[in-house]
TrEMBL record:
Pfam families: HEAT_SCC3-SA, SCD, STAG. It comes from Cyclopterus lumpus. This is Cohesin subunit SA. GO terms for cellular component: chromatin; chromosome, centromeric region; cohesin complex; nucleus. GO terms for biological process: cell division; chromosome segregation; sister chromatid cohesion. One of its GO terms (molecular function) is chromatin binding. The keyword Nucleotide-binding does not apply. The gene is stag2a. Component of cohesin complex, a complex required for the cohesion of sister chromatids after DNA replication. The cohesin complex apparently forms a large proteinaceous ring within which sister chromatids can be trapped. At anaphase, the complex is cleaved and dissociates from chromatin, allowing sister chromatids to segregate.
Amino acid sequence: MAAKKGKKAPGDKAKGGGAGRAPGLGRVNGHYQENGMETLFEVVKMGKSATQSVVDDWIEAYKHDRDHALLDLINFFIQCSGCKGAVSGEMFRHMQNSEIIRKMTEEFDEDGGDYPFTMAGPQWKKFRINFCDFIAVLVRQCQYSIIYDEYMMDTVISLLTGLSDSQVRAFRHTSTLAAMKLMTALVNVALNLSINMDNTQRQYEAERNKVLAKRANDRLENLLQKRKELQENQDEIENMMNAIFKGVFVHRYRDAIAEIRAICIEEIGMWMKLYSDAFLNDSYLKYVGWTMHDKQGEVRLKCLGALQGLFHSRELGARLELFTSRFKDRIVSMTLDKEYDVAVQAIKLLTLVLQSSDEILTAEDCESVYHLVYSAHRPIAVSAGEFLFKKLFSHRGPEEEGLPRRGRQSLNGSLIKTTVFFYLESELHEHGAYLVDSLWDCGSELLKDWESMISLLLDEPVSGEEALTDRQETALVEIMLCAIRQACECHPPVGRGTGKRVLSAKEKKTQLDDRTRITEMFAVALPLLLAKYCVDIDKVTNLLQIPKYFDLDIYTTGRLEKHLDALLRQIWEVQDKHTDTEVLEASSTTYHSLCNEEFTIFNRVDIARSQLLDELVDKFNTLLEDFLQEVGASGCFFDAHDLSKWDLFTSNYKLLNTGLQNGDMPEQIVIHAMQCTHYIILWHLAKVSDGSSLKGDMVTLRKQMRAFCLMCQRYLNSINNAVKEQAFTILCDLLLIFSHQMMSSGREQLEPLVYTPDSSLQAELLNFILDQVFIDQDEDNNSTGQSLSPLCQTTYYNDYGDIIKETLSKTRQIDKVQCAKTLVLSLQMLFNDMLSELGFNVDRSTSAFCGIKELSRRFSLTFGLDQMKTREAIAMLHKDGIEFAFKEPSPQGQGSPPLNLAFLDILSEFSSKLIHQDKRTVHKYLERFMTVQMALQRDDCWLPLISYRNSLQVGGDDDTMSVISGISSRGSTRSKKSKSATASKRKLPEAEENSCSSSDAVWMNREQNMQTPVMMHSPHLTSTVLRDPKKMRQEDSFMLNTEHCTHSTQVTWMLTQRQQVEARQQQERVSMHYAKMRNHIRRGSGLMEDDEEPIVEDVMMSSEDRLEDINEDMNFETMDIDLPASKNRRERSELKPDYFDPSSIMDDSVRIINFLQCCFTYLLLFLCNRSM
């Protein structure tokens, strides 16, 4: 075939219009003008004229001027691609197809991306249909003459082949669709030619076989000539088809665009179906087989559709054996395709394959489809159900023809057995409703044969027949119930439908008829079935659900009251024999369905129900009284006797779990069960501790203890206060018993039993304390004190007396630093509350601020007299307080004091507890946060900073130093005592003083040149409880290294150090003497000391004044900070320089400390609010 279009004679220049054009149509530079005139593209797009008439008009124009008509057809394809350009007559006459396509590509506007075949809307959808019809009708109308002129078809095929190879998607898509539809039309022409050739050949054979006298030679010659012409036309059509197939299809069936690939596969399926003699062979089938592996579901779907069209015909299906054997595995795997539509079509294709031949699919292939009847996607399940029905139920042998329609011996009876066998073999016994729904569309007649189902359950098998087993009968009852539900509800089971659909009138009538049949049959059969299977839980549970689908009017209209009485008697017997929850709930549901006041049977059912409930209530009251007595007795014996060998933990745990699930168990039962379970665990622990238990007892005890703790934690949310208090008390006892202390005294083997509460349990206990204890109440506090006592036992003022007192004592014994951090955290929380109430401008004369400051003064008294024992805690307290004060910048901008600066006034109450060396260190730490401008400020808003700095001056004696003068409020009395003391002081040599002063000067210059941050991070107030020591921020070292002194200065420093130790010993002797003089006053060493009671305030104040007088003899300014060995309970050899780093003070009890810190903080805030 010529790849180049034919040329027109030079003198043939008709200016007439093309097909479908009005008389005034003209072109300017090859573009159409739309002054009331329509192009071929517009005519097809609008669809106002019939396609047949449009084609006829074009053919007439082609006969008149074939170049202009063909030019209209070419521009039609160009415009269908969305190109705004057009091919002019000059271009058509002098340019090759490749040049025309290149020119159109240059004029194509690809910015929008949309073209007619990708645009949405009904208009463009109709346009696609009209486009395909136009090509089909055009070829059909030209099949007798024009397509054989070697001009039109050559030109069109050449153009479409070139456009299909374009880089422009719109050209490629449009031309491929046009070429494939053109190919399909040519296939129809070739098929007609083949039929005509066969008819001509038969006519020729018939005429030639006539006797010589009757033979018409002219007719033979005409037939031969006709057959020759048909053969030539057939060859011409085959050449055209080969050109399209090789020039377009072979390249486009693997195009990058899925829609183009889908067009190719869809059309080749049509070719094989229409002209199977030419196309139904391996040369063409291979393209469909290969494309079944396409990545796009749209293309795979077209492949399956093409094959379904072939397998619908048994004759064509028989010719696909080789293809099926080659690609069968791929088709079977496509039943699990991720695209649901593809999977559905794959199952339908296998059903057609099954119809064509039973031997193609193996048992494994069928089983891969069988299980899809349980799919949640209903179309897949229905398709799989149809496949299953065709495979198992559609084949009838000759011996089955004479069987009855209904009953045990009927054909349906055999098929129902087959259904039961399949259901059991699938091992999905909880999905009977899914199986019934899958088979409903194709096998509803079988599933509605309830008469045969009842016969299989009640009738005895005949001789030679194998009876159903118990398992098979259970499956049959479930399938029967599911079929009844499907017939009465008319909607798929849960998970397969989006909602109830509206039933048609025919479906509603069918539903009513089915419900009537169900009631008439099962009103008689159900009492018999319940009597036969009364003791079987599964069968009875399903059978008792049938009455809710009854039409209860039929009991009266059908005179079936005696069967109703029989049903009520059987329900009575069922509930009397069973204790299973499912059976009892099913019985209750049946009574609810039957007790409907709208029906006349209500009185009869209501009497039976009342009699049943009276009997149940009497039994309940009797059993409850006996049970309470037995539980109380067992609890008393558990307290003093080991009853663990009876393994009562499981029973008690089950009882507690039932109480949680139902929520209505009496509190006496729950409390007694908790106590018994608690004693069981304690007796078990005693055995394990003594070593008399077996090897696995420790593992069992660990599991039981943790399970019981979780159960008690769940009971903390109970609505009953007595139950909550009991659960709280037991939890606290268990946490105390199974803490790390249980490994002491050589019992390291008990380490697996150690139980550390997680964050959720800590939060639950804390919430209980906050809700039940720390509340304002006028009644007696004994109950709240009893609730608080267990918590204090597990962890470690006035309203709860000794409990809180002991808690604070245990707290500081565990960790003084954490206790100090808790105190300052409480003050910070109160300070934040005050800011939220009073605003940012803090008035230090308000009662709220004065109350917080008074509280801080009282907190400072709890640190006792021995400053060395509390040195680390006090330093940490000041560090946290300084960071908090500078944490938030001023909301008023730069130049204003930080938001929390007034907190330094509160913090100054603790300055007196710092030893002189640490005051300088704290002062230097304070200067880290200060800027030069802050140090020069003297406004009233900066008084807290000035006051706090003065309280840290090494020369100052306490925190009561005057803000203005810097002189202590007690300076007048102290100055008298200091005169004589000063004279006896020993001073360092001048060299050392000069060295130290120069060192301080260097440090000050360095600090002034350093860019000091305005604020430092401090821990969030709400994160103290759950803070992980491994994740805590590594703070910069609080202690500052001083400059090195010369060798001579170090010698002098050693002498001074010895003098200081002697002075300290003198101080201790004076303190002891002073304590003996005040022995008539009962006091302790303070809460921050180890084992003594809190000191009395007046004693603290007087003793403090006394110690200040003693300390006058000590010179603490003769050296840089030297930290002696700490004498606290940790027995540290020295105070670490990073003791302001939180990670350095965490020990193994950090979780308990964190939990205590939160409890203690809430306690302090609560007591402070009560006192304020």
